[in-house]
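Below is how a single chain appears once it has passed through the pipeline. First comes the sequence as given, then the structure the pipeline wrote out for it. We keep one example in the README because the format questions we get most often are answered faster by looking than by reading.
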Amino acid sequence: MNHMSASLRVSNSSKFQVSEFILLGFPGIHSWQHWLSLPLVLLYLSALAANTFILIIIWQNPSLQQSMYLFLGILSVVDMGLATTIVPKMLAIFWFEAKVISLPECFAQIYAIHVFVGMESGIFLCMAFDRYVAICHPLRYPSIVTNSLILKATLFMVLRNGLFVIPVPVLAAQRNYCSRNEIEHCLCSNLGVTSLACDDRRPNSICQLVLAWLGMGSDLSLIILSYVFILHSVLRLNSAEAAAKALSTCSSHLTLILFFYTVVVVISVTHLTEMKATLIPVLLNVLHNIIPPSLNPIVYAFQTKELKACFQKVLCLPLQKR
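Resulting structure:
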């Protein structure tokens, strides 16, 4: 056994010196973390059900087949992909003690999480642009925001995020994992995995932060710029009622953006300071990937009049008369 370990250490043909990682779960609460499976299952099932419901409603109602709702439908697909990348493995850890994950599977999960989170940020930007054109250039809106533009924007976001984040798992795979293989996390995060490396992981941290700020940072900057123009346009309206109506169409979008980017900044700061994996950062990381898929359709359903009316119609609820 010792001879085998020694030959493994000196072998140049073997890229990795550990063959698998072990996901321990939430730091400090291993003994009772299985109880967290109940809220996780509820969040996951509600995310799948609500987002599927959104897609069906948009598909079946011609009045909802306009840009704002089409982008919401794309966001629903992204949300379900993100939740499915993470939750089933977490439940396997909590229910069946299936803590082992192979290296390729782990790096694939790192890639998928980064792609879906980047896609979510990109769709938020598309939604902000849609609101900007609708409020600031209403007469030109039908000629600018066409189905062709929606398709091109979606394909661009898929390609951007699919290609943009490749360096993150590739750099993680190039690290030298020579001894430790236990990760204090429920999922394969770049920070958690590369912290086990025996060599310098600073290139990984720098790469992830640069890509995050180039991708999501530019998205957030453009979203803020869009809302500056929207606010400027709204304040010029003579009617307070018209201004309130214009802003109400943005309220659900702003709610989701605020939650999404606040947690992104917190996680980035945690990453930058190379804080040791403790419960709060790990919990934030997990919740950031699970809550938005459940929250997004609910916020839109309650804050968007047309969508709310369709929900009430499908669920046979009495429509509120104003």
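The chain has one domain: 27-177+184-313.

See the next section for the split statistics.
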